[in-house]
Amino acid sequence: MAGAIASRMSFSSLKRKQPKTFTVRIATMDAEMEFSCEVKWKGKDLFDLVCRTLGLRETWFFGLQYTIKDTVAWLKMDKKVLDHDVPTEEPKTFHFLAKFYPENAEEELVQEITQHLFFLQVKKQILDEKIFCPPEASVLLASYAVQAKYGDYDPNVHKRGFLAQEELLPKRVINLYQMTPEMWEERITAWYAEHRGRARDEAEMEYLKIAQDLEMYGVNYFAIRNKKGTELLLGVDALGLHIYDPDNRLTPKISFPWNEIRNISYSDKEFTIKPLDKKIDVFKFNSSKLRVNKLILQLCIGNHDLFMRRRKADSLEVQQMKAQAREEKARKQMERQRLAREKQMREEAERTRDELERRLMQLKEEATMANEALMRSEETADLLAEKAQITEEEAKLLAQKAAEAEQEMQRIKATAIRTEEEKRLMEQKVLEAEMLALKMAEESERRAKEADQLKQDLQEARESERRAKQKLLEITSKSSYTQSMNSSTTALPTDLSSFNLISESLSFDFKDTDMKRLSMEIEKEKVEYMEKSKHLQEQLNELKTEIEALKLKERETALDILHNENSSRGNSKHNTIKKVS
Description:
Blueprint: H1 2-15, E1 21-27, E2 32-38, H2 43-54, E3 62-68, E4 71-74, E5 92-98, H3 105-108, H4 112-127, H5 135-150, H6 171-176, H7 181-192, H8 200-211, E6 220-226, E7 231-236, E8 240-244, E9 254-257, E10 261-267, E11 270-275, E12 283-287, H9 290-310, H10 316-414, H11 420-490, H12 492-504, H13 512-548, H14 558-569, H15 573-580
Parallel strand pairs: 1-5
Antiparallel strand pairs: 1-2, 3-4, 3-5, 6-7, 6-12, 7-8, 8-9, 10-11, 11-12
Helix pairs in contact: 4-8, 5-7, 5-8, 5-13, 10-11, 10-12
């Protein structure tokens, strides 16, 4: 009986249906992922799964975007995924993107993954010209993008043409100037070289800090009509609602900051903004589609909630995240300092080794030259000795001939010549013999002097040989000393790598003194940043002046002209919003 019941239970469990699923493809700014989702899943279930996969905790900035009938829509958290107007074919594609933007990226973006996703999205928007960026700022942003990708500039690695395949500047900027790709690369690289020492997350944050001051940063634009039927643009961002002329997306005509709006509502296609000050007229407008009205309302509610949230104390979760981020930043800073010290020690060791190797080569060359000089001295001495011997033998031979001539003269004198002719001939021969004897004596004397001189030269050559041998002994002793020094220097990196292992096994314990020192360093960094900002502005103005002569005025867009007018009046994004609020 029990066996029959067990078999029925097993059979029923086999017949139990597995939950129905569908495939979803999630595209982030730098990757694609596929998930198998249950039919009953809501938008929040899928969104949480993506955030867990990415390791993202600052979820309130992001959403899952899809397109329906040429209109952008966002997945609702409390609605089933399949209940949305998504295509029936699989996999169903959603884009994981930033839906809301921070007012201050440096203060609000805590996690490195959050900063990275924002960096990629804003960079793409600038390159796609969805965010207007002036030429000089485009070059500066490109230099930070290069620092984030390639690390510190190294002229031996990053040679001319290394950015040839990179997309770094908007096409509008490239077409606006008579400049070759090499000229743009040269200007980007000049700034890139100044970012030495910045890690990837620091370079990306610097990029965002500059980009967030651009007029179109974080603004969602919608085509609307007011009660009179005038075509306008509505801009929704982290600061409030802004009304623009269709031809001017940079400077709003009217702005409604979130803290001055009492209520936002829509009925069918009519949208109503009620200011907090009841004396101010209600602003009404119409959009083309009901779906667009829903999207505007979503963005208004989300941005308003974040606006109010920023002005309250951080939640416990955010406080924990910020504390962890500070500790992580401090740990990375200490790690970078340690690596910088080790790198400096290695470089010094390598420089010492190179200097010793150079000195050793120099001593080897000197030894080779001394050996050659010694060999030449020995050869010269042998030649001089041989020449002296030959000269001495020649002198002896001449002396012998002179003696024979003298004997011949005496014999001739002793011979009686009876006839005058014989006497005259004899006298002539005697005279010739005397002249020959005199010449022989002079030549003998000259040869003797030459032999003495050769002996003196031989003595000097042997003295030079002795000095060369002594110098060679000195060089040989120096070479052995240098080789011992070189071997001790070569052992230095081994000690350094053992030091690396020891230091890596240490745990980080942030005491009060460490935190005080870190606070002082942060304060010092703030002062340095202010100085760098001033220097940066000067560089931007200098680049703008430099490339102004190469600008093709006829290619300027309407936004270029508007930006130049705003710059000449000293208008910026924030003071313009304050003026029109």
